[in-house]
Structure formats: structure tokens, C-alpha cells
Design brief:
Number of helices: 2
Order of helices and strands: EHEEEEEEEEHEEEEEEEE
Number of strands: 17
Distance between the termini: 26 Å
Structural class: mainly beta
Largest sheet: 9 strands, mixed
């Protein structure tokens, strides 16, 4: 399955100050300390991450396999959720059927992993997922995070996933390389402000839109919005992040670069997203 994430219902007022400060710190550092970049298991973000997954179902257990060779076990034998589990990377999960919806409750996570967008969690996190197949080949998934030590209320992400027919998962092993090059990750997100240039608001407005294409082997959506005189990008429905103009067409500030390709009227037709691995061109949809 190949999931894609929408923004969820988390509001700034729902995030406790210490957690909000940590999110800002991680954004400023371009997420260099993300456990995923250190080849560590993804923990509760397993359900909200990109990439292919294979679901194996038996009466007593559902197992979800991922390309990075990690796996997840969901007990379906009627047992109760552990009340005081030993914290682990992937937690402890039990599932049950509610009509045609699979409801999975999980806890027992250590606090070393990140949720979507760099949001933290504590060992008190409890996660509830609801999986429902809307038709052959499509899943609707709702993931609710409840962590009173970090957030003032539970918050929910809604995802969709599609069947990747006639496709085999390929191994993607992060730690095959002895050196992931992190010593070359320098700078801060705020550095983009030092080289920023002024761009007229009417020109910025011509870049607003939804751009779609393929990043590596996965579909990718980049939504560009304009508010308070600045552009922001949201990747695959994730949090909006401001981007800073370095020229009339090139922007930075998220750890990636964005170069807009314009037609004769100055309207953007494509955006090129710059990664360490190369440039990826996405076509404007609207």
C-alpha cells in the first residue's frame, strides 16, 4: 500500500509549549536528528509514513511489513491492551473489528521517535487507528494520537492508501551505507532569510497551486499557498512550511529548494523540487 497524508486536525493551541518549542527547533535544524535518518525504527509514525506496505492477515494476528525490513504485529485474538507495557520502538497493538472497520489500539512506545512534521511524543502516547476498505484497492485510514503529556487533546490524521497491484516490495535498507553524509548537513532554516530578496506579491500569487509528480517511486503532491505576503508549501498534505525567495523564481527554507517554471504570462506551470538526491519536476494541476 502507498499512503498519502492530509493535514489532520492538530491546532497550535493543542500543542504544549515544550512540544511546540521542540517542533520549531527541529524545523530550524532541517530535521537532522530525525530518527529515520539514523536508520532507527519509525515507531508510531509507521502508519503515517510514505512507501509500500504489505499486510498479512490471519485469524489471530495481522502483520504489516515495510520496505525497510521493519514489521508490526497486531494481536487479533481478543486480548486486552497492556496496561503498563515495557516501552519499545514499535509498541504493543491489539485489534478488533467494528463492522467492516478494523480498529487497532496501541501503546508502549518509547519516546525516541517522531510523529508527522517533527512533533514529539512521550511514553504515555496511545494511538488508535481505524482501517476501512472503501472498495477494492482503496483504504481509508484515520490515526488518532492521544498523549496528554504533550498535547491538550487527542488529534487525528486522515490518510488514504491504494493497492499497488502486480508490484513487489523492494528492499530499502537505510544502514547499508556506513556513512549517510550527515556531516555535510550544515546551516539552519533561518539562514535563508539572510539572502532573501523582495518579490512583488502579485508575482508570488502566480505560483499558488497544486503540483503533482513522482518523487523516487512514490506519488508526491506539493501545495503552494500565499498568505501574509509569503509563500508556503505543504508536501503530501503535511504541515505548511514557509519558503523564502532567493530570486524571482527560486525559493528555499525547508531544507529543499523550489524553482518555479513560468509560461509567457508569468504563471507557474511546474515546480522543480531540489533534493540531495537530485531535482524532481512536478506539473501544476490547478
Amino acid at each position: 500500500m502507498a499512503p498519502s497524508v492530509d493535514p489532520g486536525d492538530l491546532q497550535p493551541a493543542d500543542v504544549q509549549p515544550w512540544a511546540q518549542a521542540l517542533v520549531q527547533q527541529r524545523a530550524e535544524n532541517f530535521g537532522i536528528d530525525n530518527p529515520r535518518y539514523k536508520c532507527l525504527p519509525s515507531g508510531p509514525s509507521y502508519s503515517t509514513g510514505q512507501g509500500f506496505k504489505r499486510i498479512l492477515q490471519t485469524p489471530a494476528m495481522i502483520v504489516i511489513l515495510q520496505e525497510d525490513l521493519t514489521y508490526r504485529q497486531i494481536h487479533m485474538d481478543g486480548r486486552a491492551l497492556e496496561t503498563d507495557p515495557n516501552p519499545t520502538w514499535m509498541g504493543y497493538s491489539v485489534g478488533r473489528w467494528d463492522g467492516d472497520t478494523l480498529v487497532v489500539e496501541s501503546n508502549g512506545y518509547n519516546d525516541r521517535t517522531w510523529l508527522i512534521g517533527g512533533y514529539p511524543h512521550t511514553e504515555g502516547l496511545r494511538m488508535t487507528e481505524r482501517f476501512r476498505r472503501t472498495d477494492f484497492g482503496h483504504l481509508d485510514i484515520a490515526v488518532t494520537f492521544d498523549d496528554p503529556k504533550a498535547y491538550n487533546k487527542a488529534w487525528t490524521l486522515r490518510l488514504s492508501a491504494r493497492l499497488a497491484a502486480d508490484t513487489e516490495m523492494m528492499e530499502s535498507v537505510c544502514n547499508e551505507r556506513p556513512d549517510n553524509g550527515q556531516e555535510h548537513w550544515i546551516g539552519k532554516a533561518s539562514d535563508a532569510q539572510k539572502t532573501a530578496v523582495k518579490v512583488a506579491p502579485e508575482l508570488l500569487a502566480k505560483y499558488v497551486g497544486v503540483y503533482k509528480g513522482i518523487y523516487l517511486r512514490n506519488a508526491r503532491t506539493v501545495e503552494v499557498t500565499f498568505s501574509d505576503g509569503a509563500l508556503s508549501v505543504s508536501v503530501n498534505g503535511g504541515p505548511k512550511q514557509p519558503i523564502v525567495p532567493q530570486s524571482e523564481t527560486k525559493f528555499s527554507g525547508t531544507g529543499l529548494s523550489y524553482q518555479f517554471i513560468r509560461d509567457d504570462h508569468g504563471i507557474a506551470t511546474h515546480v522543480v523540487e531540489g533534493h540531495v538526491s537530485g531535482d524532481y519536476k512536478y506539473e501544476r494541476q490547478k
